[in-house]
Amino acid sequence: MPTAEAPYRQIANELTAKIRSGELRPGDKLPSTRELAEAYGVHMNTASRALSLLHDRELITGQPGRGTYVADREQ
């Protein structure tokens, strides 16, 4: 029986698609964890986990005290 994709993966995959399509460009600031949680109707831990996954994929970078930004792509 197939299972639904975890909410944090759905969020991460949607943001990944926006980054790869160019909708979100290198240097663009991402919404805060709180803003993502509210936008997707999930707990802040779920939104945080989605951002962690994007960081692991090297698609975003965090700047302490400033926020989270789309990473520059090395091509």
TrEMBL record:
Pfam families in the record: GntR (PF00392)
Family matches, as InterPro entries: Tscrpt_reg_HTH_GntR, WH-like_DNA-bd_sf, WH_DNA-bd_sf
Keyword Transcription regulation set for record: yes
GO molecular function: DNA binding; DNA-binding transcription factor activity
Alphabetized UniProt keyword annotations: DNA-binding, Transcription, Transcription regulation
PANTHER family: HTH-TYPE TRANSCRIPTIONAL REPRESSOR YTRA (PTHR38445)
Protein name: Regulatory protein, gntR family
